[in-house]
Amino acid sequence: MRSRSESLEFALLGLLKENSLHGYELRKRLTTMFGPFRALSFSVLYPQLKRMLDAGLIIQLEVPRGGKSKRVRIVYSISQKGISKFDELTQGPGGLGLDDDNFEVSVAFFGPTSTRNRLRILEGRQRRLKEKVEILKADLDKSAVGLDKYLLEWRRHSLETAEREITWLDQMIRSERKN
Questions:
Q1: What is the value of pTM for the model shown?
Q2: Closest Cα partner for 23 from 41, 5, 1?
């Protein structure tokens, strides 16, 4: 996944593979998945659902609300084409991103992902972070002089955070290899 749109599409396919859901419930589950700091408005969600409908990845059903209401609720379900695409993304050699946003979405759907691909994703993320650590260390070594103290502290914090994630990834990789 190279873009937020692709990341959102992957997450929607994963959620809809589990259950058919209406827009409000999809937004609620995506907000839980993406976390409180990545807002997802209906003005982003519904155009994405429309693109997925147009591509044949999902289908739209009108379900009676029940009770006294005569209005129908629109519920989204994954199509066979959508299932194939989701399976391709979770089982194939490419498609899942290793950057901060996409990695989190990839981890959210590790359950249906093969062990081989979970390892590939974890190892790829680890490589990316090790590169980031080297860049941050080199940057801190050469530019510490004259750098604003707050920016310097932010870079140190970024370095420590990346190093902690590498340690966590080491543990996850060892655990996956045991299984």
A1: 0.79
A2: 41
